[in-house]
Amino acid sequence: MPSIQDVAQLAQVSTATASRALSRPDMVAQTTRERVLKAARQLGYQPNVLARGLRQGETRTIGVIVTDILNPFHATLAKGIQDAADRHGYVAFLFNSDEDPAKERRALDTLRGHLPQGLILVPTSGAREHLKAMPDLPVVELDRVTGRPDATTVTTDNTGGGAAATRHLIELGHTRIGMIVGQQDISTATERHDAYRAALHAAGLTYDPALVLPGNHREDDGYRAAMHLLSLPADHRPTALFVGNNEMTVGAVLAARALSLRIPEDLSIVGFDDSRWAQTMTPPLTVVAQPAYDLGVQACELLLRRLSASGNRTPARVQLPTTLILRHSTAPPARPRSGASGPDPSAAHPPVTPSTGPPRA
Amino acid sequence: MPSIQDVAQLAQVSTATASRALSRPDMVAQTTRERVLKAARQLGYQPNVLARGLRQGETRTIGVIVTDILNPFHATLAKGIQDAADRHGYVAFLFNSDEDPAKERRALDTLRGHLPQGLILVPTSGAREHLKAMPDLPVVELDRVTGRPDATTVTTDNTGGGAAATRHLIELGHTRIGMIVGQQDISTATERHDAYRAALHAAGLTYDPALVLPGNHREDDGYRAAMHLLSLPADHRPTALFVGNNEMTVGAVLAARALSLRIPEDLSIVGFDDSRWAQTMTPPLTVVAQPAYDLGVQACELLLRRLSASGNRTPARVQLPTTLILRHSTAPPARPRSGASGPDPSAAHPPVTPSTGPPRA
DNA sequence: CATCTCAATGTAATCGTTTGCAACTGGTTT
DNA sequence: AAACCAGTTGCAAACGATTACATTGAGATG
């Protein structure tokens, strides 16, 4: 790798002038500038980010930690962030926490050594604690929220989305609506859960804890939870399911199939977060859609704005709307027939193996 | 951020000793070492990667460029790489080229400034040219291949996979087998294409160029190409389709649905690359599966091995096998009837039958 | 006891940039 | 002609780590 010394030598100037010609064009005479630029081009000079970062303290780098890069929602967030960062001449370093606070911690430590100027984080339950160790790093919490008092956050309207989904099912005539909800120490999960409960109450329906099962955001959890709910005796079994995230929705659909329940005739399903899978499965899935790419872009721009104008009071919280997209996985409940002679659930071993992702650590 | 100076001061030693206590534990007396370690812990010291990298020339960093992070195949590659890098104490910087040579070029330049010790690249068509500018950077070409004479590569057996897919369709009795193939300047696309042609010839079938349409790897392209092929007059229309990558397969399936063609009764489809979508769509898709996660891991380990033992002749080319996974999107061709006026496919719920994926590592 | 050895530590140079300050140029003002 | 100016350029000091080399001191050896 040619250094700025090589460029300077070839252009017959000092390194100082060479440096200025490249980054402060107006401080140097036109003819010298051209000489330097030409030399740089000729050598294929590329400034050494390490040296520059060391000297300036500015790395033009931001860190990004998502919880699951294989989840299309998170991949889209990441892409939105990277595209936006790129437009502003920043580089985004992407890490993965796999929903594991310990891994998140390690990612943070690694990142810190690279002196990022800011951090965009989809927090795990440990994040609040971890962030205490780095009080002067500007952080944007994305999608979820740690609850730190004056955090900057970019989220979606989980409450509105959860309410819309639940109301939709109620309006179709469902009265036993089950929910598969994420970990209760994750803000999005509790918000969606609360919205579901509130919507039931508002409609005069009772909230039945037996119809609400927790999962850990992954497909398997959705499968297991749905299996349990759908195997309840016919007069307790929910006729509709609201599932709290996209991965678990896949599991729930597979569980319904495994039990030979037809969607939407025997079971209505609303998922959270749209995806190609949701659009193209049969039947196409009714979902609460989130503007994932935009979330990423907003988070990045918000962070960069904070970085440049540290005094300037830019908004600390951005919330984007959700959209209920009606497709064909929801319908009025079936008229109660006698002995909803569903297949014996205990005998029904999953004919469709829930697809597991690559090995999780 | 505390520096090693702060640590040294607190531990009452010189920076040299502090540095040694941290990275050459055996060069320093036990009592001092403990003092330094304690000071470091107390201050939350995290070595400045920039300074270290600058001094040592070693950044313990590798660059990764994939062509589409939103494609689950590529996301899985990236995850495999990052997990493997992490295990070896390396950090992987992930970039996206969006199949665009110009973007790839920019990513390479940016990357270069960060002095990565190696690069893992899913090359675009411009890569061969771009890499000339950086002759001393160790590169592993992943999934695709640029054709540079002594490149290190990690790929899958596209030829075997393409042959298996085509043979499978031939054995079912198909004689008009269409193919939707990727850009012909991408190695995977030509290999799969060649394998398809060879398999036809081996079976005594003629290769009909009219049944082979190119696409640019994205869903839209698959949709358009399939639309075209499936709109041919009934006696020219292919009864089976072999689609050259996962994204285009989605498009092809949607096109078939749009034309109310039942799969597999009216049209058999084999895709390349497995995915959750392929596993859970109706009917579950027959595919040529690739070990994506493993590809990433292998690429990373190969690169790191090359880095450490530069003299040592480690293998330059790794090829992993593909697996033809039979599901339910393929069947013998329909007896030639007139008019494809099948029932509305959206009403048809084919029985869900076991569709176990390949054993995942 | 003088000397040698070796382990432990310190001093200072170094990596490639940026940048405060000084120095030089040629022209303009007093 | 002295003083001043603005526009260019160079010198050299940082940034934070590592490491070649020098130094120290204590114990071993003759």
From TrEMBL, chains A, B:
GO molecular function: DNA-binding transcription factor activity; transcription cis-regulatory region binding
Disordered: region residues: 314-361
CDD domains per record: HTH_LacI
Pfam families in alphabetical order: LacI, Peripla_BP_3
Biased composition (Pro residues): 351-361
Sorted UniProt keywords: DNA-binding, Repressor, Transcription, Transcription regulation
Residue ranges of every copy of the HTH lacI-type domain listed in the record: 2-56
SUPFAM superfamilies: lambda repressor-like DNA-binding domains (SSF47413), Periplasmic binding protein-like I (SSF53822)
Name of the protein described by the UniProt record: LacI family transcriptional regulator
Species: Deinococcus indicus
